[in-house]
TrEMBL record:
UniProt key word Signal: yes
The protein's name: Sodium/calcium exchanger membrane region domain-containing protein
Keywords: Antiport, Calcium, Calcium transport, Ion transport, Membrane, Potassium, Potassium transport, Signal, Sodium, Sodium transport, Symport, Transmembrane, Transmembrane helix, Transport
Family to which the UniProt record says this protein belongs: Belongs to the Ca(2+):cation antiporter (CaCA) (TC 2.A.19) family. SLC24A subfamily.
Membrane topology summary: Multi-pass membrane protein
Sodium/calcium exchanger membrane region domain: residues covered: 96-237, 341-493
Localization of this protein: Membrane
Length: 511
């Protein structure tokens, strides 16, 4: 009978996981159906001359005579299929390839990237939350930086900012939801790293709201974003001192003494024998047997057939072997070759960037085939696609017991996305490649971005409140709360971008 509550708890958690997956799928399906209906309604609204002044003619360059914006699929290479071919079954290939690339990202993060980050931590003597908020966040955000460079310099559209705003909400809500629901354990989180990163992220969001309010990004505003991230790195350098001050302030507010004297100790935890404390070696050292080494060698050798695995494990080994072989040829395993961890880290960044771009391309094609508007795609599918590295690596390190590192990575990558992934391309564009000679500014077009960036603050407050009310303990309750908040944000943001409340976007041109 003692095992019955635990069994019920496991069933409850499993039910929440299934409910979460089904709920997200239903929301995306409703968005797809609703968006196709809204497209015709939006055209009718735009035909009213009294409402036409809300639109911007800058978006109507590639389709003369039409009051619409070109689809985002035009900003990517052709996949070799027509839209009708994709609707008649070819889209299944895109879906299968996307899933296979998700497995590739998971393999890169699990086998190569996370061990390389741990090597950085040990060699640079960095705390796990610092490494998560800086090294891990920067590496995972390489896809967003690349996409915003494409959107700023090549297409001169809002693909980058829409994707980064959408991925910011995904990182702050969906990733903690994934960690809480799929980690299969409850973990205590250090309050100071989360508070520190959330505070800096709050400043970054406020700066973004101020910058995009008038629809133009001045050179001075782009410089301010880059300088603000430099201050964030400077803050990390003094993290130990700031942490001590913060803990002293909190202790003084709570009027609680953290040092409790233990009275009447009858059985010491570490007892003396021959002048030495026994038990300490057992705590600090792990016994590594020859069998452990052989198992590690088998798990990292792609040429050894997994004889002891089940049929399911053997089929999975066959399914992932081409990916393992490709990564084996291009990325050195820093677990075998510790001195090559820098090369491992760099190659992981390259693989994460390339794979994320291809996933974003495939997801854009899927959304176009399902008639989902690009403004909605940037906030949902494309944002989720570019945030896959953060999600995979955060869930992996959380399952390994480093929940603070996983959450610091998701919040830190948001700060990097807003301040550098947007700031650096805007800075270079405004300073050296202005659209009009002498006009050192960058123009953005979607009025809905202002509303969505405002919603970033509310999502951050709700995320932090859910952790604080749960006493900074990451479990399924926090995961479910973050998932529900994320779904609510997605529905609200999509309704805004679909011109339900008021017209903010020109409809996508028909192909």
């Amino acid at each position: 009978m003692a095992m019955l509550p635990r069994t019920r708890h496991k069933k409850l958690v499993l039910g929440f996981k299934v409910l979460s997956l089904v709920s997200v799928s239903v929301v995306y399906l409703l968005i797809s159906v609703f968006s196709s209906e809204e497209r015709s309604d939006t055209y009718n609204v735009l035909d009213n001359p009294s409402r036409r002044h809300l639109l911007q003619v800058n978006n109507v360059t590639d389709h003369p005579g039409e009051n619409c914006t070109p689809p985002a699929i035009d900003e990517f290479p052709s996949d070799g299929f027509t839209r009708e071919q994709r609707r008649h079954g070819a889209i299944v290939l895109h879906i299968l390839l996307s899933c296979y690339l998700f497995v590739l990202l998971a393999t890169v993060c699990d086998i190569y990237f996370v061990p390389a980050v741990k090597k950085f931590c040990s060699n640079l003597k960095m705390k796990e939350d610092i490494a998560g908020a800086t090294i891990m966040a920067v590496a995972n955000s390489s896809a967003e930086l690349f996409i915003n460079c494409v959107g700023t310099f090549v297409t001169e559209g809002d693909l980058g900012i829409g994707t980064i705003v959408g991925s910011a909400v995904f990182n702050i809500l969906a990733i903690p939801a994934s960690c809480g629901l799929f980690a299969n354990m409850a973990m205590d989180i250090e309050w100071w790293p989360i508070t520190r990163d959330s505070t800096m992220y709050c400043f970054a969001v406020v700066a973004l709201i101020v910058v995009v309010e008038d629809g133009t990004i001045l050179l001075s505003e782009a410089i301010a974003l880059v300088v603000l991230y430099s201050l964030y790195i400077l803050l990390m350098c003094f993290n130990s001192s700031l942490s001590r001050i913060a803990h002293k302030v909190v202790a003084k507010i709570k009027r609680r003494n953290y040092y409790v004297e233990v009275m009447g100790e009858t059985h010491p935890l570490l007892y003396r024998k021959n002048g030495k404390y026994q038990g300490l070696d057992e705590i600090l050292q792990e016994e590594i047997t020859l069998e452990d080494c052989e198992k590690f060698e088998e798990s990292t050798n792609i040429w050894i057939w997994p004889k002891e695995e089940t049929i399911k494990g053997k089929l999975w080994w066959i399914f992932t072997w081409p990916l393992s072989f490709l990564l084996f040829l291009t990325i050195p395993d820093c677990r075998k070759y510790p001195r090559l961890y820098v090369i491992t880290f760099i190659m992981c960044i390259i693989w994460i960037g390339i794979t994320s771009y291809v996933i974003s391309w495939l997801i854009t094609i899927i959304g176009n085939t399902l008639s989902i508007p690009d403004s909605v795609m940037g906030l949902t599918f494309l944002a989720a696609g570019t945030s896959v590295p953060e999600a995979v690596s955060s869930v992996i390190v959380t399952k390994q017991g480093h929940a603070t590192m996983g959450l610091s990575s998701s919040i830190g990558s948001n700060t990097f996305d807003i301040l550098l992934c947007l700031g650096i391309p805007w800075l270079i564009k405004a300073a050296f490649y202005p659209k009009i000679p002498g006009a050192h500014w960058v123009e953005i077009h979607s009025d809905g971005i202002n509303i969505c960036t405002g919603a970033l603050l509310s999502s951050l407050v709700l995320f932090y409140a859910s952790l604080a009310f749960n006493k900074f303990r990451l479990d399924w309750k926090v995961g479910l709360t973050c998932l529900l908040i994320y779904m609510g944000f997605i529905v609200l943001a999509c309704l805004v971008e679909l011109n339900v409340f008021f017209v903010v976007n020109v409809p996508t041109c028909d192909q």
